[in-house]
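Q: DUF1360 domain-containing protein, please. Structure only.
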Amino acid sequence: MNEPAATTTGLRGRAAAIGRRYAPRENRPLTGYLASMAVFTAAAATFAGLVRATGRSLPHRPAPADIALVSIATHKLSRLLTKEAVTSPLRAPFTRYQGPAGNAELHEEVRGDGGTTRHAVGELVSCPFCMSVWVAGALTGGLVLAPRATRLAATALTAVTVSDFLQFAYAGVRRGEQRPPARHEQVDPALSGA
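A: Structure for DUF1360 domain-containing protein:
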């Protein structure tokens, strides 16, 4: 009966030893990364099973419009999940608030307590680059299993992304209108007729 526990402890011990050799001066959560890779692989296998069970076929070549739509939606949803204040309750068990980090975004640090899985999840939920792999996988799977709903959701996320860039452009124009003229732009009062 004790053999599985001993094997688990042995695997954990070996993984910890590998981690110490891999990054002797840093605490890298290799077992947490392995756990997240296992979850991602299980999700991909579940998707493949659903595709097979529903009789759907994979596209021979994704449409360029779908690639663009999913790319922009992936960018937005990844930033929404990992940086925006409104989703901070989802990240709170794995991160610590450090302060604002720009327009509607937060700077959070990964919690050092709670083990390697918590640390790895903390990195995932606070890193838009890390999260984008998961989001792109989900949206791509959605295009196969529920294309209309996925395109609709991706369209909304893309519209928000375009709106964000327009907000930044508008703010930049407004700042430009409100700045005092540069020295070379100032008119000599003697020449202005004043």
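A: Brief note, in case it's useful. The chain has a mean pLDDT of 88.
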